[in-house]
Design brief:
105 residues, alpha+beta, three-stranded antiparallel sheet, 3 helices, 30% helix
Length: 105
């Protein structure tokens, strides 16, 4: 599996396995502003990042704009003495609704 495919599957696993609802307000507000009804917005079911959609065999249509939100990405840091510590890095990500995607060829 290529490094890109690994990254896509990791993105999908994080999206599906997450339990935080911290971004839900921003996700709902952002997609409702784009004209998508609230009852059609299902985070972790039909709202994912670009890479998570790619892992599911879908492509975000060219020119589509998603909704920005925050996520925590797990990391492992190696210190100068060789010890490792786990942590998290906060990143801004863009999520897209299924209506903004097409099935990949």
């Amino acid at each position: 599996m290529s490094a890109t495919a690994v990254q896509q599957h990791e993105s999908l696993n994080r999206a599906r396995g997450g339990v935080s609802t911290a971004n839900y307000a921003a996700i709902f507000a952002g997609f409702e502003a784009k004209g998508i009804p609230a009852d059609q917005i299902l985070p972790r079911e039909n709202v994912f990042t670009f890479n998570a959609w790619k892992a599911q065999g879908r492509s975000v249509r060219k020119g589509e704009h998603g909704v920005k939100c925050f996520t925590w990405i797990p990391t492992t840091k190696t210190k100068a003495d060789g010890t490792k510590s786990d942590g998290k890095i906060c990143r801004t990500v863009t999520v897209f609704h299924v209506s903004q995607t097409d099935a990949s060829n």
